[in-house]
Amino acid sequence: MKKTMYWGLGIFLLIVSLFIDNQIIGFVTNLRTPFLDAAMMGFSSVFSRFVMFLLLTTLLFYDRNKRKWIIPLWITYFTSLAIVYLIKLAISRERPDMIALVVADGFSFPSGHATAAFSSLPIVYRSFKKMKLYWLVYVLLIAFSRVYLGLHYLSDVIGGALLGLATGILILKFCSRKK
């Protein structure tokens, strides 16, 4: 029941965010400072989706007992990216009409960075129990950076987070059954 409540809350937030996306963009634009600009660009580029999954792969590889989660991690990564690509083509939502701090092409919904980041959470929660909170903060910063940089609406990020979590959970369940 608790999980259903969380999914319901996530879907509710997604729906609400669709109505306040432009107000959130205006609010976040007012938060910009040179320090935050640099920090958010760092989260967006240095900690890109690929680097994040290479880092997780390395951490999983380091511990012999956790190596079994490398393949599910990469299946999750590539599956979530494929789903994002298909949804972006189907919905074709334009990126926010604001001054973006970095250049991005393609469509806006859902955020591929948020999807990839959140898809890693189920494996991190299972494999690195002491790192759970740190990783959650990390993926939230990645998601926020996408809005801050002017590349996505809040609804793009929430939609990506829900999609990533769902993909990660389903693939983890599927792979856990096979072991």
Distance between the termini: 27 Å
Biggest sheet, open or closed, and with what strands and sense?
none
Count the DSSP helices.
8
Q: What pattern of helices and strands is seen along the backbone?
A: HHHHHHHH
Q: How many E-type strands?
A: 0
C-alpha geometry: globular
- Report the helical percentage: over 70%
Q: Supply the number of structural domains.
A: 1
Q: Determine Rg (CA atoms, Å).
A: 16 Å
The chain-level structural class is mainly alpha
Describe what this molecule looks like in 3D.
The chain is mainly α. It has one domain (2-178). Helix content is 75%, strand content 0%. The chain has helices spanning 2-30, 34-45, 49-62, 70-91, 112-119, 121-127, 132-148, 154-178. The longest helix has 29 residues, at 2-30. It is globular and about 45 Å long.
